[in-house]
Task: structure prediction
Amino acid sequence: MGIVISRKIGHAVIRNRFKRHMRVLFHLFQTKINTFGDLVWVATRPSIARLSFEALQNRVNDGLNQLNLHLQNTREAQA
Result:
């Protein structure tokens, strides 16, 4: 897992807090993430830093679900 955070997000404390939250979420969703292979998180919007941990968790879960559906559709189209 790679985490890329723009300086637009905020100063170092905010960026580091976001990285810590993403690492925790990686461990929470590890079984879901392992099916994708490599994963890189890119944070460029300052509003992401203002989200609570629960809101961030919901967004990550929604994104992983969308990615999973996309991968399933791609695999079905290739078969």
The chain is about 60% helix and 10% strand. The beta strands are 2-5, 40-43. Residues 53-78 form the longest helix (26 residues).
